[in-house]
Amino acid sequence: MSPCLHATTCSPTSPRSPSIPGRGSAATTRGSPRRAPPRLSIARVPSTGRACGGSSSSGSTTSATSSSPARPCARSRLISRTSTSPCSPAPAAPRRPPCCRGSTTFEPCRALWQDLGRLAFDPARERELIATLRRGEYDLALILTSFSQTPHPAALACALAGIPMRVGESRERGRALTLALPHADDGLHQCERNLQLVERLGVPVVDRRLEIRLPRPAWSAAQARLAAHGVAGDYLVWNPFASCAARTYDPLRHALAARALAEYADLRLVVCGAARDRERARELLPLLGPRGLDLVGETDLPEFAALLAGARLVLTNNTAALHLADALAVPQLVTYAGTDRDSQWRPRTSPHRLLRRPTACTPCYRFACPTGHECLALAPAEVLAAGLSLLAETAVRT
What we know:
There is one protein chain. By secondary structure, the protein is α/β, with parallel strands linked by helices. It folds into 2 domains: 4-14 and 34-200, no CATH class; 217-393, 3-Layer(aba) Sandwich (Rossmann fold), CATH 3.40.50. It contains 10 helices and 13 strands. The strands form 2 sheets. The protein has a 7-stranded mixed β-sheet, with helices on both faces. Strands 10-9-8-11-12-13 form a 6-stranded parallel β-sheet, with helices on both faces. It is globular and about 60 Å long.
């Protein structure tokens, strides 16, 4: 996977912000031209095996999207002028938060150090990444990492691109970072990890929530698609698959729970997922009965987010749908595998239930489970009961 490099021209508003040297700048005096704001490159290094921008269809089976833990940092008080985002291959994402508006996007890029050996040896690719950063003439690189990542490969790329200040959290020693801040606690939520990094630079954060602003065409497309299939009232969204098997609750059990929940609550059941999941999703559709609506692979990422925004309840694993629903404050029922600590990725805003069995191997951080998925040994009746409880809790009182 590539680091998602969000290069934003902005000005910290806090008086405690560190001094950011400009390129050939001097102190501004009265009557002299005002110096342009410093250019800030925000590099988000996605977790190994987690995509940064979503999938080529719904985006529902990737584990981080435009609402990934990198994004809340953009909600801190930075006055944005322009923004550029060379990032991992992805479709157009929902509108960026306020700090990142007015942005443009470079061609997708991949970084060798995050691709688990799948990329061919091609030094020209790495040289182009560095050249892209150099053309931005950035003054500071803010490198955002998860608890398990090192900032140094991304910092080295930024150093080779001539970015004079490079900031990140690090356990290791090295010269790639010009400011290495102490590593935060591993159990900290990834949103909070990145927000705290910004705050430690003296930039105040006034809103800690994730934010997604959906483009109007996405709303229109989602409403038109639902109307074409006769969905006029409330509905459930079921996102059955995650990007790795270890984080996917048994699809047959999940299907039975989803159907029972839709029938008990008298709701339509909209099934979403990535195009690569079409074949295995078709095997589940007969289990859903007449309430089921197959939209797997039919939506792009913004439309998928719009479908989530209109849902009465979202059923999902620990994957992109969790983060999108959290940003949209949509109630969600999450079958949350023991691959990760719940403190690191759980919803922070949306009403939710997290279901999993406690196991000695948690967190395992595996792509495939070698022990029979004991952490997700959940009966459909348990999922149904939790869903009904959450629906009752979030019902509109009249």
